[in-house]
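Figure 6 in text form: structure in, sequence out.
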């Protein structure tokens, strides 16, 4: 799950976690510590640092399946330790033999992952707003541009752009120029 405010670490030593926290201060995010490998699937974060050596066979199977079938690959994953068959590929992870190998690259990796996550979040929020406009028009035939703007806290020009995107996507949205309202044609 993507959240540009958090990094999650699993299986790191105290020293490694401290260094990760120090690096994360530069990009103003918080490091969470996963107590169980399942936290890697349920906690919102934009980057995970995982000590693969701390994963048992069940964890590798479950995580590989999750990354392959469910995860949208919006988060960056860094795997430390012996490469685990299938997990690195399924997670689209960057693998490092140990934390020392990662250490020098970590600040740059964090910065790039943070920027990518923030950009992706912006896109996701825009898409969510577009879908909300579609739902409002469909569920409230005769709604005005002003009411749509007020409902999602955007300006009217943005609403008109969102509607144009919906129309390009073949949504059957019509405008009544007499009433100055929008409707969805089924």
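Output sequence:
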């Amino acid at each position: 799950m993507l959240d540009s405010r958090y990094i999650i670490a699993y299986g790191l030593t105290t020293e490694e976690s401290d260094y990760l926290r120090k690096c994360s201060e530069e990009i103003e995010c918080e490091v969470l510590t996963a107590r169980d490998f399942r936290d890697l699937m349920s906690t919102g974060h934009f980057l995970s640092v995982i000590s693969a050596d701390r994963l048992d066979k069940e964890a590798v199977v479950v995580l590989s399946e999750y990354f392959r079938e469910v995860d949208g690959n919006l988060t960056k994953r860094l795997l430390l330790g012996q490469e685990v068959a299938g997990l690195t590929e399924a997670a689209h992870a960057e693998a490092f033999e140990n934390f020392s190998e990662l250490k020098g690259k970590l600040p740059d990796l964090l910065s790039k992952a943070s920027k990518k996550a923030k950009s992706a979040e912006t896109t996701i929020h825009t898409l969510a707003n577009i879908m909300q406009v579609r739902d409002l028009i469909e569920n409230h035939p005769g709604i005005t541009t002003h009411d749509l703007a007020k409902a999602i806290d955007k300006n009217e020009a943005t609403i008109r752009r969102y509607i144009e995107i919906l129309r390009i996507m073949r949504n059957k949205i019509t405008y009544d120029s007499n009433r100055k309202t929008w409707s969805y044609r089924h």
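Caption detail: The mean pLDDT is 94.
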